[in-house]
Amino acid sequence: MSVPLPTIDQIRDAAARIAPHAIVTPVLRNAELDALAGAQLYFKCENLQRGGAFKFRGACNAVWSLSDEEAARGVVTHSSGNHGNALAMAAATRGIAAHVVVPEGAVRAKLEAIEKAGAILHRCAPTIAAREAKAAEVQQATGATLVHPYADTRVMAGQGSLVAELLAQSQGLDAIMTPVGGGGLSAGCSIAAHGLDPSIAMYGAEPAGADDAVQSLARGARIDHFTPDTVCDGLRTLIGEPNFHALREHQVEIITVSDEESIQAMRLLWQTLKLVVEVSSATVLAAVLKQRDRFAGRRVGLVLTGGNVDIDALPW
Amino acid sequence: MSVPLPTIDQIRDAAARIAPHAIVTPVLRNAELDALAGAQLYFKCENLQRGGAFKFRGACNAVWSLSDEEAARGVVTHSSGNHGNALAMAAATRGIAAHVVVPEGAVRAKLEAIEKAGAILHRCAPTIAAREAKAAEVQQATGATLVHPYADTRVMAGQGSLVAELLAQSQGLDAIMTPVGGGGLSAGCSIAAHGLDPSIAMYGAEPAGADDAVQSLARGARIDHFTPDTVCDGLRTLIGEPNFHALREHQVEIITVSDEESIQAMRLLWQTLKLVVEVSSATVLAAVLKQRDRFAGRRVGLVLTGGNVDIDALPW
């Protein structure tokens, strides 16, 4: 594992570092959803974070962790989704350049948002190899620091900062559940939660069509070839190497949900909680409702990761 | 004016009375919307209130203002919308009966929600005369206390409670804007705002197709015959008599907006603020964007009144 996991102290530092820029997102409760689940649910609303997703935390911590000299050369990443946008916004808070490598065929609206946030776009072929090659090329040409979307210590530490807020806002929890994609959120949150209260049970929600984390945990080694097939566009990434180790170390139990279950849960969140959330975020509610007995009577924190949805193309 | 306006002390009492039951809703800010408006906008998210609308505040204050003897006989209202639902939920917090008179032809989903909240429905013909007659009949038969949706001192006091929260959450404001329908919210908020800080300028937003408040203020007397024509279903009521006097006394300036402007603002709130809000709520943002010069550079509180939307029939 070449990328070290963050420590609880690094997560605390991250929280302090991003405080001037990030939003302390609210935690919402809802009597109707509690009754449905038979549990006390605490929704951490990262869809209300800057840029509409938790990704701003990790990107912001990475940007403000750089020395002045490093910062002057900018940052680079390959992501056409929420992380690209978050890195662009984070770079803007420090007034430095952000280079974002995007594959041909990426959603135009997302690219426009990234450009609007001030990033320089670099196009490449839509393969992982082409993205990594282009990012390396930009790094060499500019001296920019690579900020990986999830396999990055500073990014994981930034994501973990939300757990300290959640625990303070809810006066303690029995369990916390996050969606699992690349695993940056799950890793950061697990380290933060157990650093503050080792008794908290950590859970992940993964789409059945992208269950590489479940399979990796079952066989005890990370799967690195897998073609995800799910409507949850934010969770199509494979779990990262350091992230996989964090999930094992912190005994994160993963519950898989069907796309249909996630879409129904998304609808329920819109109608009941009055929040615009992505289908990827809704996996956590789908998982709690699917395994009702497991969560009955417990205080469960659910991380609603983002709200960047095309409201003209809703999945129901 | 037979119904007295609440005093600031009654609003303070209301805030304390509903505190065990109501949610202290978050105030959200958004850099993108601030830039669009050229102002500092503070969104008071009453769509995140219990029942999905600010109406719970007034209904809850009315229910808990009753003596034990009065409470034992229940409460009654005529409203198939958010107030009927709010009164049902408020009555449930005290374990008393709620009677809700609903016109034939009311939206089935809304009626189901009111019944689910525990109310007894009473059907009548879809005219104001029939609704009032049926409510009077229920009152006589049961001894229940009438809780009018807006022309009621306790209801206005309850709605006003949100302003004290908003001012504390925003560290002071130059202006506050609410939508204007029956005027219970606007009256309560104006009295609360000026009781706490007389320098705050009060604004209302009214659909052009339901501008009876604007017309009433212009001619100095309340219009009581008017057929509203607007997509803003929460604002189709005529302004109440005591409410009209409150608006005059507190020099509430009303800005009218077209349905098209409200629908565009609603879309913007969904996409940018990541909140499910009703089109009636979006009138306040539409008004600020329409009169950009008037609000430039000011700290403006905007009350997002509710989020009870049929997500299968969006107006865009």
UniProtKB/TrEMBL annotation, chains A, B:
It comes from the Bacteria. The keyword Magnesium applies. Keywords: Magnesium, Pyridoxal phosphate. Residues 19-306 form the Tryptophan synthase beta chain-like PALP domain. Its cofactor is pyridoxal 5'-phosphate; Mg(2+); Mn(2+); Ca(2+). PROSITE patterns: DEHYDRATASE_SER_THR (PS00165). Pfam families: PALP. InterPro entries: Ser/Thr_deHydtase_PyrdxlP-BS, TrpB-like_PALP, TrpB-like_PALP_sf. This is Pyridoxal-phosphate dependent enzyme. It comes from Dyella flava.
